[in-house]
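A reminder before we start the practical. When you read a complex entry, don't treat the lines as separate problems. The point of joint prediction is that each chain is placed relative to the others, so the output describes one connected object in space. Small molecules and nucleic acid strands, if listed, are placed in the same frame. In the example below there are three entries. Take a minute to note the order of the lines before looking further.
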Amino acid sequence: MTSKLPAGAIVSAEHMRAAEPDRAQQRFVLFAVSALALAVTAVLSLSIGATGISLDALPSAITAMFGDGDAESARSALVLLDIRLPRTILAAMVGACLAVAGAMMQGIFRNPLADPGLIGVSSGAALAAVTVIVLGHGIAAPVVAAFGVHALPVAAFAGGLAVTGTLVVLASSRRTVSVAALLLAGLVLGALAQALMGLLAYLSDDRELRDLTLWTLGSLAGSSWTKVIGVAPFAVLNLLLLPYLVRALNGLLLGEAEAFHLGIDVERIKRLIIIATAASVAAAVAAAGIIGFVGIIVPHVVRLVAGPDHGTVLPASAMLGAALVLAADIVARIIVAPAELPLGIVVALIGAPVFLHLVLRRGAYV
Amino acid sequence: MSDRADVLAAQSVSYRVHDVSLVSKADLGVAAGEVVAVLGPNGAGKSTLLKVMAGELSPASGRVVVDGRDLAILKAGELARLRAVVAQSSNLSFPFTVREVVRLGVSVPGLSRENPRIERAVGDAIGRVGLAAFSGRLFTELSGGERQRTHIARALCQLSVARDLAGGGKILLLDEPTSSLDVGHQVVVLEALRREADAGTAILMVMHDLNLAAAFADRVVIMSHGCIIADGPPRQAMTEAILSRAYECPLSVGRPPADGIPFVIPALGQAKAAKGARL
Amino acid sequence: MFALLKRVRRFLWIAGIGSLAVCGAQLAPKAHAETPKAAGEQRIVSIGGDVTEIIFALGRGDSIVAVDTTSHYPPDAVATKESVGYMRALSTEGVLSMSPTLIIASGNAGPPEVVAALKASSIPMIEISTPETPDGVAQKIGAVADALGLKEEGAKLASRVKAEFDAVAAKRAKVTKPVRALFVLANQGGRVVVGGTKTSAEAIFGLAGAENAVKSLEGYKPLNDEAAVTAAPDIIVVMLRSDGANKGEMAKEIGSMKGLGSTPAAKAGRIIEVDGSYALQFGPRAAAAASDLMDRFYPELAQKPATAERP
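Here is the predicted structure of the whole assembly.
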């Protein structure tokens, strides 16, 4: 066959061979770098903190955990195992959930700038959280009475799901979810939530106002094992779902009709993605408050490096998202130690310049 | 038409949007190995009929039969195993390479991405539309014609993989596959499609170029105002009377003695005269 | 429930740490942990400006290792302390990194999860919330003194503050016609935020014998221009930034504003600047702050020497 081809075609075939391994190599490099970044940030997150306790103290901390050990080991155990470890796990889960959710939203909206905010999760969660902050002694008192310290995260989670659920119902007709209607209804509900939050901010007293401002800036300061256990099911289910979504999301990038032609049950997949995104993002927001940027920049960076194939984008986003939030959280808690910066600010401060650099360097709209 | 062994058939299919009938009572069958071109003016309902037959739109009445089964009961996955579709325009704003886009056509679930048979099928489909030199190029950086050929390769890949691995790949539907191609590439694509038909695939495509359709299709179906007004081999169906009625403008049909394939040219003088008469 | 949590935690520990421990130990920075000082020496983290002031007033300022960002007084001494950040945004490890032996916090400390975690640690933590009244201040002093084991000193300070409040009350009794005062918390481009009912500003006005000019708002709220005219305060009290950098600015701005500029207070030039941490925190200086404010509200009463006030 080759012998019959004109000379030009042979050159082309070589060109093809030269271009082809590119993506495989890009994918390998990206996975390696992401995994390394995740491992390094996770270890650093466990080793660095205001107390200066390092992982050296771990053996004695573990001994102390089982009941014997001096006060020093008890303190190490407290810091390493009850403060830093849940915080590290939570940061990784939050980062992974947000980044993957961003990638999935960009897939179903076919827009590289889409984020989970479009389906109302964050505004719903924020509205519920602000309600608990401001009306925790009024209308929302039963919630506070029932859940105590966890009233706010529980409410935020429920609020995120409730708003997304409402949106999906509004945007559905005859068992089809229209992405365009979703976008419009999302805008309207978002504005409504914003207005209600404004109203609550007006009603709030000084302290509540500070609380709600701080909450919207995001923080992992209140991390606990209870929160880890609360977020883990959603994060893990979401990650387990990813392999099943790769082909569907790739197909959806061609358009919904094309995806259907390729054998994808578009309506089922859209619902599945919206539910998975809503649940994982609501859980992440409930645990850490509002953290922007991760859902947009991480998938964007991944696509810049290794192309838009979701087989690469989803797992790499999960790892890099986790690494980014871990890194930002390390900075947040050590830069003004013993005080702490809001995490959302740090993520934006680290993320925005990196993002700008990548976009400008490549000059590409991915 | 019941005596034909049609692998794809529309049976008295109608489609409406808000009481406006876009397709009415269309009967159309395509047999294995047959190439059928759907002709007609803009708005005649060609693309709508194609979409109904692809399963993208549900008919208001009538039914579509795919490989002996009612399309309405087939799931998206089963349908994709049997047929591939190239839509009129599908834009893609994410920078996939040509090879990645074509690989999207692999619709058999559960195959590992690095399966060598798949990779061979992908490369083969790219070669068949003359894009071998472009396989590593970004789709977003291609010309309109190159994009169109990429989508055709994707559909060919979908058929060949379905055929080899899942006993499917029987039908190909295309909406104006040659519209943004130059003459040379029109020939490349049509020859690739002919080879696909020779391998047993039933091909139904909407076309605008009457002469290309006349030269290439085994059968032409001519539509006007949502109705099929003629169906048969080009030599019989493409008459001056039928075409002029369909396009609502006088057309001359010539038949070179060599092969008898009709060629169509607009009868400009008569058109002017007709217009003048109307005024 | 708790048993389950404990089991899950243990599982996570074994699974999670086991793998990380090996490589982590190599990578960890060798930053030395601050070892707790010898027994007997207190290391206090003080959260809340009022609490910090009381600890200093009780003579134990030296034991404070860290304060929050609402602690401003005494300025020079507070400046030498570490900061654990804003009192509503504390960090568990940040506070613990000070190796405190005692945490004394205002009831406003937060977020709740961090406060809960701190309380769950082995370090004693005391939260104090008392009403913004003379009795409340005395209770607050008592609570801090108890925590420090300085009952006697606490009682002494409390009674001194109480005596000051009594003197203020006596002076207040002479007020025949209370002035109407308006508290301006902030002014952003002509939009003023004022103190309505249930604010510390209203509480201190009450102690200083003045009436809050805005009773229609609750909390600190933006006031519209027309309502400013209707409120018609005799006196406007503006809050200075904690570093006093905006001294004199607000008075000038208010004078030039349409709404507030036309009030009796602005016309008579009766715009008073106060230090927020002094006037609004209800610490040991609250009585003095009330007294100062009263002197400026009623200059005629302040003319007479203090001794002459007692019959």
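Discuss with your neighbour: The CA atoms of residues 85 and 173 of chain B lie 5 Å apart. What might explain this?
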